[in-house]
Specification:
It is a single chain. By secondary structure, this protein is an all-beta fold. It has one domain (4-99). The chain has strands at 4-7, 12-19, 22-25, 28-35, 39-42, 47-60, 63-65, 68-76, 81-83, 86-87, 90-93, 98-100, 103-104. Strands 1, 2, 3, 4, 5, 6, 7, 8, 9, 10, 11, 12 and 13 form a 13-stranded parallel sheet that branches.
């Protein structure tokens, strides 16, 4: 059995994709993608409108619309286009890539930060 699955350019899938293998998309996917600990690659002809969760690495060479949460890295290649939010420890936006959204490189399940009160002002010293 192969460790890599490919959705070809003539394929259009709607719904939820769940798997424990690397996935390459050269067609169209609309919905939700869960690839626990594996790599997702969206090729140049690929068009994904989805929420992506738990992939180790996501490489966008085509078009991605939606949010990505990755365990290791998200890379938008020079020919790639991404619209949505990215949450991953490492993010690469190649020269020429198109990105619109926000990037969070903090911990995947970080607790909300509380505001630190400002330090009291220092007393003025007369000379």
């Amino acid at each position: 059995m192969s460790d890599k699955i490919c959705i070809g350019s003539s394929m259009h899938i709607k719904g939820e994709l769940t798997g424990k293998e690397d996935l390459t998309i050269d067609g169209r996917v609309d919905g939700k993608i869960l690839l626990t600990g594996h790599q997702l690659t969206i090729e140049e002809n690929g068009h994904v409108t989805a929420e992506i969760h738990d992939a180790s690495t996501v490489i966008v060479r085509g078009t991605m619309i939606g949010n990505i949460i990755a365990d290791d890295k998200v890379e938008v290649a020079s020919q790639g286009s991404m619209q949505g939010d990215i949450r991953a420890p490492r993010v690469v936006l190649a020269d020429g890539s198109r990105f619109r959204g926000t990037i969070d490189t903090g911990a995947k399940s970080a607790a909300p930060r509380t505001a630190v009160p400002p330090a009291p002002p220092k007393a003025a010293v007369e000379v």
